[in-house]
Structure formats: structure tokens, C-alpha cells
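go over this chain:
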Amino acid sequence: MLKKIDQWDVRILYAGMIALMLAVFVWFAGDRLLEASVFLSVGAVYAFLVVRVVSRSFRAFTVMLWSFLLNYWMLISLDVDGALDIPAAGPWFIGFMVGSIAGGYIWSGPGAGRERTQTRPRRPDADGKFSGGWRLALINAACALVLFGIGTAQLVLLSPTAPAVAALVVAVIAGWALFRLPLPLEIRNGLLRLGLPVVWFALAFVGGATDQMALPHASAYGALAGILIGGRYWSGPQFGAPRPPFNGQGRRRRRRKRRPKQQKQTQRRSRPAVAAAREKQAKDR
């Protein structure tokens, strides 16, 4: 009985959060409610699919989570530039949060109120590699296509110039090479964590100075799409499988073996006996 009450409490909490965010959206949109609802719906569906479907592929899920902030910054640029003439960034943000909550939790059944997780977590095979399949290949291909499409669309809306197109193409090639070439894990992660932000801020500065605000976004979308394309096998027996190295393949410290409880108990029991024997030997002397 208490478990059912707890489940209902959790579901009421999540539903209340969604209702609160929708109320904020209605207040925020005002007279532009119908127009802003488009980006609210797109953001909600985007987040729902990322949580429910894309989460089956760890790399695609990570990349699409990165794209959340990228989409938000890009929509802010569109709002500032006035390219769409409707509010986009705020509705997108609220829609993404609503879709994440709706898709990230179980709403009915025995596990109601719990966070939705994969029933069968992916684990490496005996050789340390992960299996593939057409589902993983389809998820990664669709995500790469979506990212490339968004990058192209924002390029057309913000600044359809030759440098912006070049930034998109070069970024796709760079992202592909970063995960396609057998680089050491430390070098790849370093380039990924430092290279992408540095390039984005540098191109943002250049784009602001030359009135080409699509430059940083084009490079980021291209790099993310290239990562998904280069980080997976697209033919052969490993079709759909991710390319190594993996983040879990680093050196691990050896853990000290824990002694069995019975052995510890016997040692504790033997200590008083050993001490008593030593005292007896000392008295005999």
C-alpha cells in the first residue's frame, strides 16, 4: 500500500513539474502562443526520442545531449537576428525539459514512478568489443542526418556564405577523422574536450566580427555529425558496432582482495589465545 502511494506521489510530482513548465510557457508566449507552440512541440518530441530511442546507443545519446545546448544557442542567435520572427529559444528549452521528463520516467505498470533505464545494458563481448546491428546503425545514421540538417538550415537562415559552408564541411571531416583514425584514447578525449569549445568560441568571435553568426554553429553541428559517422562500422561483420577505443578501456587499478568473513573472524578469535600463550611463556621463564 505504501509503495503504491509513493508511486502516485512521484508521478504527481513529475506531472506537476510538466504542468508548471507549460504554464510558464503560456505566460511567456502571450499573444504568440500558436507560433511558439511549434518549437515547444519540436523540442518535446526531440527530447522524448532522445531519451526513449537514441539512449540505446551511448555515443549517439551523448552527442544528442550536447546538441541540446547547441540548439538552444543557435535558436538564441535566430531570435536576436530576427530570422524567424517568432520566439524560438524559450519554447524549445521548455519543450525539451517537458519531453525529457515525459520520456525519462515510467508512468504506468509495476515500475511506475521510476526512472526509465535499459532492461539489458550493453556490455562488451569477450574480446572487449561491442556488438552492432541495424538498429544501432539506423539510430546513429538518423542522428547524424538530423544534426547535419539542422546545421544546414541554420546556415541558410543566419548567414549563407562560403566560409560558413566551408566550416560545416571541414567540421564533418574533422569529426569523422577524430573517431575514424585509431588515435589513443587520451589524445582523442583531449581534442574532443578542448578542441571543440576552443574552435566554437574562436569562430563565434570571427562570426560576430564579420556578421556571420552561422560559423560557430556550423562547425559544431558538422563535428557532431562527423563523430557519429566516423565512430561506427558501416559495413562488414561488425556493421553497426562502435569503433574502439572506448572510454572504459583505460587502465584500472587493481583492487585489493577482500578476505572472507570467516577468515577474519578466526583471526580475531585467535588473537586472545595467542596473547594468553605468550603471557604463559613469559611467566614460565
